[in-house]
Design a protein that fits this description.
alpha/beta, Rossmann fold, 8 strands, globular
């Protein structure tokens, strides 16, 4: 595994020359959850990404759903890039078999680096961090900072209440329906992969210096 220097907010220039495939950012929990379907889905998603010529960029951990999706990608011969703040190494054990591991100085830098690597974004089940990450990416899209595909993988109805709240926010006049519709909802891995296949991956650099 190639461990890069610690990145700071002043040097978020990412070298992708050694990355040979589009990378999908996957946001998900550092826990397994109470229902085995979440871990099964994470591993299935990793395998499906690899089988379709897609790699992974994610939070870099070996635990929880994060570890499962990385295992699914790596065991099927695709590339996986991890990004983790140095202060979290004791809490989230870094995956040892990644194509590349970036250490960052802050959580914000971590998210910016992941966003620069990513050609698309998927949220599996997860906690506060997962919710914050996918909604921030949706916000960056709303602010015209990227046009990359964004998917909620709504396994076991996990995001039903969030989807309901977003629609309520549209009704109350705080979010546009167009912006909510850009956050695609898929109920299974096959649907998520199909949505990615129907997307055109374009060179769309994140304007992280503006956020």
């Amino acid at each position: 595994m190639n461990t890069e220097k610690i990145l700071t907010s002043t040097d978020i220039a990412i070298d992708k020359t050694d990355i040979s495939m589009p990378l999908v950012a996957v946001y998900c929990g550092s826990r397994m959850g109470n229902n085995p379907i979440y871990a099964e889905t994470a591993e299935k998603l990793g395998k499906a990404l690899a089988d379709n010529g897609l790699g992974l960029v994610y939070g870099g951990a070996s635990i929880g759903l994060m570890g499962k999706v990385a295992d699914g990608v790596l065991e099927n011969k695709a590339q996986a890039v991890g990004v983790i703040p140095s202060f979290m190494l004791q809490r989230e054990v870094a995956h040892k078999n990644l194509t590349k591991l970036h250490l960052t100085d802050t959580m914000h830098t971590r998210k910016a680096v992941m966003a620069e690597y990513a050609d698309a974004f998927i949220a599996l089940a997860g906690g506060l961090g997962t919710l914050e990450e996918i909604l921030e990416i949706a916000t960056w899209q709303q602010l015209f900072q990227h046009k990359k595909p964004m998917i909620l993988l709504n396994i076991n109805g996990y995001y039903n209440h969030l989807i309901e709240h977003l629609r309520f926010s549209v009704d109350e006049g705080f979010i546009s329906g167009e912006d909510v519709e850009k956050l695609l909802v898929c109920d299974d891995v096959d649907s998520a992969i199909e949505a990615l296949q129907n997307s055109v991956f374009i060179k769309d650099e994140m304007q992280v210096d503006k956020i």
